[in-house]
Amino acid sequence: MNAPNGLFLTGTDTDVGKTVAAAWLLPRMKGNYFKPVQAGLSGETDSQVVQRLSGLSSDRFFPGIYDLQRPMSPHESARLEGVEIDMTRFVLPESDRPLLVEGAGGLMVPLNRDALIIDLMVQLALPVVLVSRTALGTINHTLLSLEALRARGLEVLGVILNGPIHEANRRAIATYGHVRILAEIPHLEPLTHESLRSIDHLDFPLLESMGK
Asked: Is there a catalytic annotation at residue 35?
């Protein structure tokens, strides 16, 4: 398989650790970062968190298409701001490096009356990395997400697990999901660029070729 020109990083749910996974993955793929929809602009944005934790310069980060104020589902945050999210505006920026695109929430998060995050993923046509929790319930959430991705014809590169190491859940996801576990990012205290950099990948053969 030829190396893709990027990937779409999504999650099984909100707050599963997509942004932490993006900060871990971005330097390893020697990539640029793009979050097309950001909902919730108080404090650090996801792009700012990824930049701080990855240690990369600001020129590696593309501006989003829709930056919404409220930390809500994008469709509702947009509605409250009088904004209609137009799917035709979602175009990948020209990038001289592999592009990491981070989604908002999980696969079925609405963007407008007709489109979900998974529709944006189909539109952008990048292979997918799925971020999952390690805690109770993750097997069900992860297998459902994998089934939805494959039903839409999306290529799944693998799963990144985020949270306390749980061998049984890791094994179940790999076995029943027929998927690679690309990395396990444990709970890090403190969570810094240095501590995140120390986490190695388990099975990510595309990393090296993407970063060349």
From this structure: yes
Write b or e for each residue in 51-63: b if 16 or more Cβ atoms lie within 10 A of its Cβ, otherwise e.
Answer: bebbebeeebbbe
For CA atoms 161, 165, 171, 176, give the dihedral sign.
Answer: negative
Nearest Cα to Cα of residue 8 among 106, 113, 135:
106
Place of tokens 């990393």: 207
Question: What separation, in Å, do the N-terminal and C-terminal C-alpha atoms of the chain show?
Answer: 15
Amino acid sitting at position 129: V
- For residue 51, the Cα-to-chain-centroid distance in whole angstroms is 15
Q: Which two tokens stand for residue 149?
A: 């991705």
- Which distant-in-sequence residues (6+ apart) come within 8 Å of 157 by Cβ? 7, 127, 128, 129, 180, 182, 204, 206
pLDDT in tens, the chain (212 residues): 334 489 999 999 988 999 999 999 999 999 999 999 998 877 789 999 999 999 999 999 999 999 998 989 999 999 999 999 999 999 999 999 999 999 999 999 999 999 999 999 999 999 999 999 999 999 999 999 999 999 999 999 999 999 999 999 999 999 999 999 999 999 999 999 999 988 877 666 656 555 44
Answer for the pair 35, 64: CB distance below 8 angstroms, yes or no: yes
User: Hey, what long-range contacts does 194-198 have (CB within 8 A, 24 or more apart)?
Assistant: 196/20, 196/23, 196/24, 196/53, 196/54, 197/27, 197/55
